[in-house]
Amino acid sequence: MNDTMVTVSSETLEYAQKSLAGVPGGVQKAVKEALYRAGDKMKTDAVQETKQKYHLLPGEIRKHLLFKKAAGVNMSVSLLATGRRKPISEYKVQGKGKDLRVAVRTGGMKTLKTGFLVDGNGKKTAMWLPKGEGTPAMPVISPSVPQAIAHKETRATMEKQARERFETRLRQNVTRIQKDTFK
């Protein structure tokens, strides 16, 4: 997954600095907690958005995501997606023989010409025969989870929701810290 930057308005940060001017470490704590919440929910957003566009199970997406939270003076969070390309049989496959139909993205099945299913070790694998005599059958490979998450619409939605969530959460944290400090 390529780097995704979430930009935050300067007004929100200035509000936090002015509101928590008399609280030592208050701004840092409010920002760090807001970053954590926005980043943690970004993982949920990644699963939901990817699931809408691709035939992937939520657990399959989740196991390829790693969330790193802000620690110490590090004021950043990151969501990393790892994984290799997947066989198409892990997406959606229907039919047998020449009527083999597959779908990686939601919205329609496509016929896999010269495709067939191989049943080995309890797993069904979609294979295809390239043109030319003597060429071996090859497994049909489809996108990896990081490629699916990197879809431009998915990323745009994730960034927008993370920005809104950060700003809302920062304002809530400022209010909470003010109440706790100035009782």
What's this model, at a glance?
The protein is α+β, with helices and mostly antiparallel strands. 43% of the residues lie in helices and 19% in strands.
Description:
The mean pLDDT is 83. It is rod-shaped and about 80 Å long. It has five helices and ten strands, in the order αααββββββββββαα. The strands form four sheets. Strands 4-5-6 form a three-stranded antiparallel beta sheet, with no helix packed on it. Strands 7-8-9 form a three-stranded antiparallel beta sheet, with no helix packed on it. A two-stranded antiparallel ribbon has the order 1-2. It has helices spanning 10-19, 26-53, 58-62, 145-149, 152-181; strands spanning 65-68, 78-81, 86-87, 92-94, 101-103, 110-111, 115-120, 123-128, 138-139, 141-142. The relative contact order is 0.21. Helix 1 packs parallel to helix 5 and helix 2 (26-53) runs antiparallel to helix 5 (152-181). The chain folds into two domains: 10-84 and 145-181, no CATH class; 87-142, no CATH class. By secondary structure, it is of the alpha+beta class.
